[in-house]
Amino acid sequence: MKYLSTRGDAPARPFCEILLEGLAPDGGLYLPQAYPQVDAATLARWRPLSYPALAFEILSLYIDDIPAADLKHLVEKTYTAEVFGTPQITPLKALDEGVYLQALSNGPTLAFKDMAMQLLGALFEYQLARTGQQLNILGATSGDTGSAAEYAMRGKRGVRVFMLSPHGRMSPFQQAQMFSLQDPNIHNLAIEGVFDDCQDIVKAVSGDLAFKQRHCIGTVNSINWARLLAQVVYYFAGYFHATREATEIVDFSVPSGNFGNICAGHVARSMGLPIGQLVAATNENDVLDEFFRSGRYRVRKSSETFETSSPSMDISKASNFERFVFDLCGRDPQRTAALFGDAITREGGFRVTPEEFARIPSFGFVSGSSRHEERLGTIRDTWRRFGTLIDTHTADGLKVGREHRRAGVPMLVLETALPAKFAETIQEALGIEAPRPAAMVGIENLPKRCTVLPPDVQAVKHYIREHVAA
Ligand SMILES: *Cc1c(COP(=O)(O)O)cnc(C)c1O
To answer: So which residues are the catalytic ones?
Structure first.
């Protein structure tokens, strides 16, 4: 299997060459040359498999430059009950008839990003050891992504993490999660500024190509293909849990921001997994809902991007969306480059043609959005009727999923975080304290390890230079 760029002009490359990369050199995103097809007999063979065995089968279709025994070992040491809480890894919880939550947030940082990031940590360490390379991951975070990356990379040989966060602006819980890590390869840099300052510094440092090369700077953002691929697995796992045979179809509802999670659903469906609808659920930041309703994709300015109570979905543009549009326009790289390279730069957005718009239903996509009051209402309703406590992002997914519910078709709502992570809003909705997993009780009192720096590119570069020398 080789990978191509959505914008066409990168040579097709094998998996391990794109593993450590974000954007393709032409600014596009990597996709496989074709989606491997899975028939009913294969689905039947996969149905009884354990999560790691299933992951191995699916990853093997996309990765042909890691020996099978090694890949098997990597997934087996990643997807364990010890790390993800249960042997099923992503168990289903039934609510009312035919409505399920699929738990993706029982990993070390209590959000679904662990599902992919934990595998990425194992793959990175493996590949760096094979090539004798080092990687210094530079990122900016306002919460979930940074902690998932740090917990995945802690103690990994050949990898260091430099994670910038806005000083004093993350919740005490989020700060404690990240800053309590004592691993010497993890560097928390608290920047005296806001999240945008952190992101600007990351861009400036990565934009200095000489510095980037000399210090082997890389990223782990959501456009990384390996992250997306790891997420494909749980769509298959969820399908098998909810059905008995491959004649049945299921719908998925996905709390969406950067379109990474639901894009993995699109890949699974394109492989032949019997998914009916893929429901894109947004919060007040409804870039994606607007697109699926109107065919118009309009990137928001920061002044139009709202801070909401489902903050991990507060996005101004959906960074993985280009992958779907590439497939929607018949995998035409010129067309994709015209839309994402030119139209977005010049006009801040685009509208697909009526023919392209008419093709959307054949990909299963539908959408909806959810607001703060609806989020609170859904959290209350789910607690009162089923005794189940859900987080704010999952509430958005459940609210919109219910709007698209079809008789006789199971609706699987992806649970993307545990309520303990967003305890303030749980308090507001129900007046109760969201319970924490035992390992997280009192983490605010642990010793913290972080370096406060001014919002200055030179200061960050200096810090990196000093700490990669060893
Ligand atoms: C990242 C995140 C999302 C959004 O996922 P995308 O892949 O960006 O669409 C939703 N919920 C939670 C809790 C997240 O951390």
So the answer is: 113
pLDDT above 90 (res 16): yes
Q: Give how many domains the chain has, as a whole number.
A: 1
For residue 211, report the distance from its CA to the centre of ligand 1, in Å.
31
The pTM assigned to this predicted structure is 0.96
- The percent helix, strand, coil of the chain (3-state, each to 5) is 50, 15, 35
258 Cα nearest atom in ligand 1 = 8
Site to probe by mutation for ligand 1, drawn from 173, 235, 256, 283 as the one with most ligand atoms within 8 Å of Cβ, is 256
Q: Read off the pLDDT of residues 149-174 as tens digits, 9 standing for 90 and up.
A: 999 999 999 999 999 999 988 888 88
| 9 in any annotated domain | no
Domain assignment present for residue 191? The answer is no
204 within some domain: no
Residue 169: its pLDDT value, please?
Answer: 82
319 close to ligand 1 (CB < 6 Angstrom): no
Tell me the one-letter amino acid at 105: S
Identify the CA nearest to 457 among candidates 203, 217, 201: 201
What tens digit of pLDDT does each residue of 172-192 get? 888 999 999 999 999 999 999
CATH classification at residue 372? 3.40.50.1100
Say which DSSP state 417 is in.
Answer: B
